[in-house]
């Protein structure tokens, strides 16, 4: 029995990429929107796409086996709670996030993961001919999808961060690489005193105007490159899901620009997953798959607390506090102050 269970685990892991493509196909087709909150016949779903029912039922049953829908009776399908997050009209929709992470732009370079492990360099650059963010910059529609996916990924973090760290004591908060402003808007809503700066490239901040419109008068959008500079006049620098995109040398450049601008009483707040020192049995693979994704697509990495502390110390900051957000969120708030 134990031997059979081990074989089943190996088979499941080996076929994981197939599951990704099944979910990706369903997301591209918009199946969750067609099914909605009802139980749908295979024929009804198939008719929406002009395909034979006998072909559509195969996809629907694969999704049912993956736990994203349920076959209530023969040929009758409804969404599970997990599957409902693929609806574009769901208030907590993950449609853009799933669409992005099942797209070839995210997946193709994984075929050369072994090369990245050997060289330490992102396979993406060789596969696509330029770095990830440069590739996105040439494709506005894909860049907008990426921004939407990051916004959806940030919502859960943004719901908890303002209650776990006192941002109200600062004069100005700069969200470095802050994308569409989802996190900064949540912080400013929860803490009415500080002013905010959203600092990102033109592509990264393209959707920020709409998100930050309710903050008009308290928040500005500054277009810039965190590899070149950081905004001045700021006593709290926030970097959420930025440092893990880059290797230590690149991440160090970002931190050095913040260090050059931060006042003596200023604070650096980094919001990222923190790898445990040991992979315990039963640990969710998500963090470690993310670590591999950083390597193969960007050349970055997830880090342990000790690795964050060293990275900060090497670039002018001292890690003084680590605040774990609820386990289901999977992120921590790392607080650092200027050293020396």
Automatic annotation (TrEMBL):
UniProt keyword annotations, A-Z: Methyltransferase, S-adenosyl-L-methionine, Transferase
PANTHER family the UniProt entry points to: O-METHYLTRANSFERASE CICE, PUTATIVE (AFU_ORTHOLOGUE AFUA_4G14580)-RELATED
BP GO terms, sorted: methylation
Domain O-methyltransferase dimerisation: from-to ranges: 15-87
Domain of life: Bacteria
Signal peptide interval: none
Name by which UniProt lists this protein: Methyltransferase
Annotated InterPro entries: COMT-like, COMT_C, COMT_dimerisation, SAM-dependent_MTases_sf, WH-like_DNA-bd_sf, WH_DNA-bd_sf
Pfam families reported for this sequence: Dimerisation, Methyltransf_2
UniProt xrefs under PROSITE patterns: SAM_OMT_II
GO molecular function per UniProt: methyltransferase activity
Every O-methyltransferase C-terminal domain range: 110-318
